[in-house]
Design brief:
Elements lengths: L4 E5 L7 H11 L3 E6 L2 H14 L3 E4 L5 H13 L4 E6 L20 H21 L4 E10 L12 H25 L2 E7 L5 H4 L4 H11 L8 H13 L7 E4 L13
Parallel strand pairs: 1-2, 1-4, 2-3, 4-5, 5-6, 6-7
Helix pairs in contact: 1-8, 4-5
Length: about 260
């Protein structure tokens, strides 16, 4: 049987959603490759790589053209034919991200950074790696429920996630026609991650989300990962964003959380 290969962009450390997805993909029998943003994040990604058995990690900062080119060339030199691409990077975790600002104080440069990292990087990476993606391959990105609500001092990230979800639909149409590639996304609810810590008191946010959930529980990263692999391996779904939020989305908006 030919090797099944997956590339994961967005692992930060053991607590990241992409780490949980990587573990589940590994259990499904894939060889895994991954990226790290810079030297500040290298150690965390390296720990995950060693623990899971990721074959190789590549440097890639989504804000740098030279990084994109070098990363894509390195993947091609390795002769990796991809069955799966997972895109899980967000502006909220990027080094030097300008958060905690009212939206009217966000500059054009900061906004374009947020959009490039959190949304357009999916388009850029998919385009650069299209040649090494197999017919019928599968792409999955990670959005947030905040793409549809207002979150104080986090709205530039919300805007990027909204753009990301639109790009999922556009890519699903074009890549489906080109190579039968499926493109989908998951939209997790509140989980303890580095991104959530940027919003405010994580424990308070998680407790309020738990109380609002019809299931009276918080989202588990393992359940996000399990759903992710099911979507990635499903041959009949594309262009969709799947919520996994213990039912919080059917209750009131952020203000009531």
């Amino acid at each position: 049987m030919k090797n099944k290969n997956a590339l994961i962009i967005g692992i930060r450390d053991e607590e990241s959603i992409c780490c949980a997805i990587a573990r589940e993909i590994k259990r499904a029998g894939y060889d895994i490759y991954a990226t790290y943003q810079d030297e500040a994040t290298h150690e965390g990604v390296k720990r995950v790589a060693d623990a899971i058995g990721i074959k190789k990690i590549f440097p890639y900062d989504a804000r740098k053209d030279e990084d994109l080119q070098a990363f894509a060339e390195a993947v091609k030199r390795e002769g990796i034919a991809l069955d799966i691409l997972v895109h899980g990077i967000s502006y909220s975790t990027a080094s030097g991200a300008k958060l905690d600002l009212p939206l009217v104080q966000v500059t054009w440069e900061e906004f374009t950074d947020a959009i490039r990292v959190g949304a357009f990087s999916l388009v850029e990476v998919s385009g650069r790696l299209l040649d090494v993606m197999k017919e019928g391959a599968s792409i999955l990105t990670i959005s947030l429920r905040w793409s549809r609500v207002a979150v104080p001092n986090f709205n530039v990230v919300c805007a990027a996630k909204a753009a990301l979800e639109s790009m999922v639909r556009g890519l699903a149409q074009s890549l489906g026609k080109a190579k039968g590639i499926k493109v989908n996304g998951v939209s997790p609810g509140f989980v303890p991650t580095y991104s959530l810590s940027k919003v405010g008191n994580s424990l308070e946010i998680l407790e309020r989300a738990k109380n609002r959930s019809p299931l009276k529980t918080n989202v588990r990263k393992e359940d996000i990962a399990s759903l992710a692999v099911s979507i990635l391996e499903n041959r009949s779904t594309t262009g969709m964003i799947y919520p996994v939020d213990t039912g919080v989305d059917i209750t009131e908006g952020w203000a009531a959380c």
